[in-house]
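$ ./design --mode recover --in tokens.txt
reading tokens...
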């Protein structure tokens, strides 16, 4: 009878013989499955997800791919889209194996998240307006903003914190990138460079909108120049207001997606898991009943 290490060895040899490892599954995931199978406790869906988390590089679609719009988007808020319309992938999210999705951009500059199982590679090229091409270029440069936080470099984490502070400030005051950044555009040429961006960061720090401390001082000009390179799509050393607007919207979309992922009541039904749909079917009518009778939870 095999025991202990011999069982693990036999299991690993079986996976190698049938080309499960390493062609289909990595060692950490394989070990996770083995430990789960060996236990007497029922395996939950969350444990399965933890084992099967996929790297974005292994996804069916990658940034830059051209895909076709799925048929289900013909109706509702996306009714202007038609099946067969080409869209460009600008971000990939594989954090949830039940809802792997891509952020796509249409020729009309509309951006939306679509599940991978509902799209396919397009048979025609992606054609967009000049504005759309610029938008796609900037959005592609800023794909790091949609990374999982733990996968970011220290520079990316620091940069995201700064950009999030800008986005929150503008959102709370209902101002556009042009309205905000024009205050620091000393040259008046409709764009800003690293030094002018530094003035904006200094303003945010003094106004208390950028969190700083003794251990986390405000960024210096060298850090700002590094941040600038992360979002300067054409590398010309300047960002115009449209480019800044795209970056800010990308940050806002990340924040919005994080908020939706933590609250199934604000998800679109097509994005929900079966369990979330069951929960919605129970809680929504219950809440409506409370409101109709003017009851409170208390």
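writing sequence...
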């Amino acid at each position: 009878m095999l025991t202990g290490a011999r069982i693990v060895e036999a299991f690993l040899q079986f996976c190698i013989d049938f080309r499960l490892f390493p062609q289909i599954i990595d060692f950490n995931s394989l070990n996770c499955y083995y430990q789960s199978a060996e236990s007497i406790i029922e395996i939950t869906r969350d444990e399965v997800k933890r084992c099967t988390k996929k790297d974005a590089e292994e996804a069916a679609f990658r940034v830059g791919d051209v895909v076709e719009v799925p048929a289900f988007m013909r109706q509702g808020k996306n009714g202007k889209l038609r099946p067969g319309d080409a869209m460009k992938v600008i971000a990939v999210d594989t954090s949830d194996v039940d809802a792997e999705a891509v952020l796509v951009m249409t020729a009309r500059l509309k951006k939306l998240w679509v599940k991978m199982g509902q799209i396919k590679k397009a048979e025609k090229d992606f054609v967009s307006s000049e504005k759309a091409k610029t938008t796609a270029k900037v959005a592609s440069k800023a794909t790091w903003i949609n990374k999982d936080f733990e996968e970011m470099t220290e520079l990316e984490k620091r940069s995201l914190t700064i950009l999030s502070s800008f986005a929150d400030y503008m959102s709370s005051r209902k101002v556009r990138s042009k309205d905000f950044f024009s205050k620091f555009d000393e040259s008046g040429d409709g764009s800003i460079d690293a030094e002018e961006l530094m003035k904006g960061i200094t303003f945010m720090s003094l106004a208390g909108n950028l969190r700083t401390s003794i251990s986390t001082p405000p960024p210096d000009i060298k850090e700002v120049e590094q941040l600038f390179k992360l979002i300067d799509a054409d590398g010309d050393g300047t960002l115009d207001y449209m480019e800044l607007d795209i970056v800010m919207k990308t940050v806002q979309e990340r924040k919005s997606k994080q908020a939706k992922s933590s609250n199934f009541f604000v998800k679109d039904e097509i994005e929900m898991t079966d369990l979330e749909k069951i929960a919605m079917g129970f809680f929504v009518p219950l809440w409506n009943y409370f409101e109709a009778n003017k009851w409170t939870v208390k």
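exit 0
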